[in-house]
Amino acid sequence: MAGGVWRFAQMVTAVYEVGAALFGACVGSFLNVVVHRLPQEDPARRSLGGRSRCPGCGKPIRWYDNLPVLAWFLLRGRARCCGGRISFRYPLVELLTAGLFLLLAVAQPFGDVFRPGPDGTSQVHGPSLAAQGFQAVFVALLVANTFIDIDTQLLLDALTKPGMAIGLLGGLWPGVAGPLSAHPEVPPALDTLLASLAGLAVGGGVTWAIRIVGTRVFRREAMGFGDVKFLAMIGAFLGWRPACVTMLLACLFGAVIGGAGALFRGTARIPFGPYLALGASVALFATDELLDFLFVAWPEWQRSSPAARWFLPVLALFSFVALIVLVRRGRRPG
To answer: Is residue 316 in a domain?
Structure first.
């Protein structure tokens, strides 16, 4: 009997995970529409309603040619109506969103959705399911903002401002953005709402301060105001500690990926929004592990290993040499 209950629970979990991936692919298909239409200046073209149309000839796309991922491969990347090329970005966005939804379903960073009931069968835990729903909205917003920023170098208020509101609403569910204090006398919903507000303030405040200081030092805009609102949105969903981790990781990813782009391609035109989204994706699943590494494991290793004292000087020397190479490459003519 116990073995049968266990197998049934495993089957329910597997169905849930596969369903999350398929649903993510469908959401990714909608995000392709958002990425294409929302930045348009013409209000009629900006509308997210109506049938999808071929970007080449403008004809309506049939439903079976709009199936996520599968349709692109069946059509071999060409439109059925006019033979125009269909960018690989379309299945890429769908696969990326499906993968993130699957990762949420497998990792379940805000508690198990299915928990043993009194009779031993699996039962849905409502708060965990609600928390996962809010985080699914969050990763969808990360994907949409990433590709819009790559295309236009803009992070649109139409996504970041509603995202802030949804993140604060998600703070009403324990486990989404908190807790902030974990004090037994503070109601859990209030504690996580305060954590969400603190995340919004810290996320927006950190980028706002960097924007002001960088602009004064370099005498040009160091960071767009869209980045300020984007990290404020991230903080509203995740809380203040993951917002700080997101900023740290975004700077690290930006230095590595942007430096590699400048070194090998002579330029690094990817704006900062995608790095923030990448940092937020990691922070969503691994904030506690990263903080433990930085403030516990790393200091212990430095105290216990004689080689640790050489790590930072070697890293600094490597960074200095890389900087010289980048500067010299930047000064080459043509």
So the answer is: no
Q: Which residues pair with 114 in a beta bridge?
A: 124
Number of domains in the chain: 2
| N-term to C-term CA, the chain | 75
DSSP per residue, 7-62: HHHHHHHHHHHHHHHHHHHHHHHHHHHHHHHTT-SSHHHH---S--B-TTT-PBPP
Q: Do residues 207 and 228 make contact, with C-beta atoms less than 8 angstroms apart?
A: yes
Strand extents, DSSP E, 57-129: 114-116, 122-124
- Nearest alpha carbon to residue 178 among 113, 235, 233: 235
Q: How far apart are CA 324 and CA 153, in angstroms?
A: 28
In this predicted structure, what is the pLDDT of residue 46?
Answer: 61
Residue 66 CA to residue 91 CA, distance in Å, equals: 11
How far is 62 from 52, CA to CA, in rounded Å?
8
- Would you tell me how many other CB atoms lie within 10 Å of the CB of residue 146? 25
Which residue range(s) make up the domain with 281? 155-295
201 shares a domain with 95: no
* Dihedral sign, Cα of residue 101, residue 107, residue 108, residue 112: positive
What is the residue whose two structure tokens read 């909205």? 137
The per-residue pLDDT for 143 is 97
* Whether 2 and 130 share a structural domain: yes
pLDDT, residue 83, reads: 77
* Digit-coded pLDDT (tens) for 187-212: 777 788 888 899 999 999 988 888 78
Q: Kindly report, residue by residue over 68-85, the tens digit of the pLDDT.
A: 999 889 888 888 877 788
**Are residues 132 and 27 part of one domain?**
yes
* Residue numbers in the chain where pLDDT is lower than 70: 1-9, 42-50, 116-122, 174-176, 178, 182-183, 218, 220-222, 261-270, 308-309, 312, 315-334
Same domain, 30 and 85: yes
- What's the burial of 30, exposed, middle or buried (CB within 10 Å: 0-12/13-18/19+)? middle
